[in-house]
Fold these 4 entries.
Entry 1:
Amino acid sequence: MSSLKNSSVIFLDFTFIFAYNKKNEDKMKTGNSEYRRGMGLKAKFSLWMVVFILTVMLTVSFFFIQHEKKILSNEIKLRGKTIALNVAANAEDPLGQKDDLILSSFVHDAKVNNKGVVYCFIVDNKNIIWASTEKFKNNTKYKRPAGLRPLKNESVLVQEYKKTPDEDVYDITAPIKIKNVKIGEVHLGISKKAIKKYLNETTKGMVVSTAIFLTIGVIGIFVLTSFIIGSVEEVTEDIEAIGNGDLNRVIEINRRDEIGRIAHSVKEMSRKLKLAQDDLVEKERMKKEMQIAKEIQQTLLPQSIPNIQGFQIETFYESANEVGGDYFDYIHIDETHFGILVADVSVIIQHLFILLQIKMLSC
């Protein structure tokens, strides 16, 4: 009795499962399912890896360019200081002697022989220009560009300003001294165009390098994702096939990692579902056979109760199982005798035929 009850529960559970799967399948066909196919795992993985590589390359390039810019700026400043100090050292005696011809040769050589120098001039303590690389500046008063402060006690003063809208310049000021007494200043302007040119070339090189590394990375990502995600796609196809009812699908396991474990679990799930489905089919068949046997049994039992004067006969029959082996019948012997036949024919089927013969002879 308990086994039949359990069978009924299993039957109801699997009916619900198959009905639920059928319902979801109908939703998938009609487009009413909540699931919507989106970007594949391979595409997502590739996209995120490309973004990651690009972000890393851009970040590295940014810090590299900033680092190179700082180094190059320091080198240009150091070169400008060296040139300015050298001019100041050579201009001590000529400035003291007011020899503007020699001073002019110094500033001319400083500009011509050093790439990037845009101007160089020498002034005295009254800010009168004694030598300049710019025309018509000699013997004029030096006007300090806006934003620049005067030299005080520094050995060399380096400042930055915009000489023209398109050109930034480092203004380097070095004192001219005789016996530690300041008699004038050297003003040297060195352009930052070299820095911009170098940074532009470096940026182009970094762009090319980034493109190359990105291309190599994309190819590597594609190969890697094809190796990893390809197996996931195969497992996904197996799961979808099982979900659609193909429990006979052959699932191949060629890996020994987590993906292989998933494939093995899917294979075990398919096997158990197949066994459960076969068990369900067998129970359905047994149920139909039991129903047929019960109907046959009901035809063998008496369909009516004899009416005997002076007696009231009532019968109630309930089998312990779906189909029992208990049998009863009424036998009319003669006018004064009436028999009730009760037997168990579940073990030996010949008993049933004997009882049927007895019934036929009594009729």
Entry 2:
Amino acid sequence: MMPQDRYELLAQFIGIWMVFVICIVVCVEGVNFDADCSTNACTEDNTICNPEIALTETCTTPNPPDQCADTNAECVGDPLTCECKTAHFVNKDGACDPNVGLAGTCDSTDSATDQCSVADTTCRNDGAGDKCLCIDTHFSDGTGCQTKVAGLNTTCDGAVSATDQCSTAGTECKDDGTGTDRCLCKPTYYPDGSTCVLRSGVIKVAMLQYMYVVPFIISMMTLLR
């Protein structure tokens, strides 16, 4: 056989091999399938396009990773189902959303109890909008929620800037004069057993101011008639 014939035979062999390889790649990637897995709601499983799976529905294995319809869901559990990924919750629309941190914006109309990520928080309106805030029995230390200090004269942490760490009404955390921080009555209150009572002088001052304001309002209304 002439050298030229050998080169031609080798070229034909290489050509046939390349066609074979291209065919395998195209078939595995699903380009020639009736369904287009990159645009339709389906996932590639070797040579088959399967419909994506809804939340809480049974899935097969953790792979392929995109078999769950929600991009924030994954196939986990026993039995295997499509569930929200870690640090996510199911919102009122049935989709997976990221959990909300302390003081982060939330949706108080959503009944999901795990919407807020920090323990002992709840989604409520603070007057400036819906936020994940500490529940009534706890106060914020900036990063988490701590149990409020119960009882008058109980030791507290004066280094914490929270004004609501003392649970008794009319109290605040301050030095008791001996270098110990305690929950004591505010200046406008006085202790009465286990509670703090508003001083009568404060009420009198408020009433006195009110007595001056009322005649002024009446006079203004008379002039405007």
Entry 3:
Amino acid sequence: MPHTGSWRLEQRPVRESVLSYTGLCDLYTGKTWGQVSKRAGLRPKVGRRSARA
């Protein structure tokens, strides 16, 4: 049976704490920290194609 497939990349925010999700900015220095992203590598998405003629 023939198969079809595709690949996708994902980047999602880490939601384990408020700091990691929203981040903070130091008003005195202007430096920011937090806003952590989680990247998922290439994920295969495999499905079956119908073999109708």
Entry 4:
Amino acid sequence: MATTPSDLESVLASFASMANVLSTVNHDSSETTNYVELIQTVIASLEQTETAMVNHREDQFLWKFQYGSVEVLVQLTGQSNEDTFTVWATVLSLPVKDELTLLRRLLEMNWTSTLEARFGILDNQVVAITQRSVADLSAGEISRAITIVATLADEQDDLLKAEFGL
């Protein structure tokens, strides 16, 4: 069963309510946006088990938190326009049974039901992922990206493991 855009209505509702949370984050439009603070606010609102962790090195940050049955990772490589903001969560470990059918299903879902996220393969893991440059990144985009990846991965991991897991 593929996730459809209508199945992700809860994601969009959560995204809309997140606008209120993010409006409380103090930042002046004339100043540089504090992406670290915005990301931490979004994670705090989504995190269910209070196990969020952050790893900070120089200007790079990596957050990890539990959302439902998946572990979500958020990476910020820096705060300049050339840096990247990436969100991903592992959905399924490879190898799997009937890999060709799985890959076809993932490609079809990439087209029909993943919104701004997509499925990919990273280190022998099927992941839900979204990535973009930090240039003109808004609080709403941060919230939406984290919410979509977390929800998509949590909705699909058990279904895909049941059908394709070894």
